[in-house]
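F.,

This is the one I mentioned.
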């Protein structure tokens, strides 16, 4: 949670790439398919990891993030192994995906920053009690 700045930076970069791709669709589709495939794969793995982290904190929406991460991973493999599939319509769809992913990352980083600031206000005793309760809950759920 302390690395919210990286999330913000990657969100801004992703948004810019999405806008660029939307404005310049004449880029080499093969090279673009590989690049986008690997970026989507990286983002999807990050989303899956984030979903599992959010689950630990008791969020009810972690399942949707997990599904989006898995779908993104599948799409990335299709783009990497079949670059001919990446026609002009894929460029537009991927550009929109980048833009929304960028906006999501920017929003998420702002939320994480707020959460990080508010978590510093908690006493060490309260954090220790919370950790013990979370451990007890995990042990109970693992039975």
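My design for it:
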């Amino acid at each position: 949670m302390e690395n919210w700045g990286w999330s913000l930076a990657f969100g801004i970069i992703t948004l810019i790439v999405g806008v660029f791709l939307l404005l310049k669709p004449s880029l080499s589709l093969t090279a673009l398919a590989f690049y986008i495939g690997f970026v989507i794969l990286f983002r999807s793995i990050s989303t899956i990891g984030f979903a599992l982290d959010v689950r630990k904190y008791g969020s009810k929406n972690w399942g949707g993030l997990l599904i989006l991460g898995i779908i993104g991973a599948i799409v990335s493999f299709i783009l990497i192994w079949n670059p001919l599939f990446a026609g002009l319509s894929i460029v537009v769809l991927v550009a929109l995906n980048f833009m929304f992913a960028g906006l999501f990352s920017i929003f998420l980083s702002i939320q994480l920053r707020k959460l990080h600031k508010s978590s510093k206000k908690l006493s060490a005793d309260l954090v220790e009690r919370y950790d013990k309760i979370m451990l007890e809950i995990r042990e109970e759920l693992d039975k």
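The two ends are 29 Å apart (CA to CA).

Talk soon.
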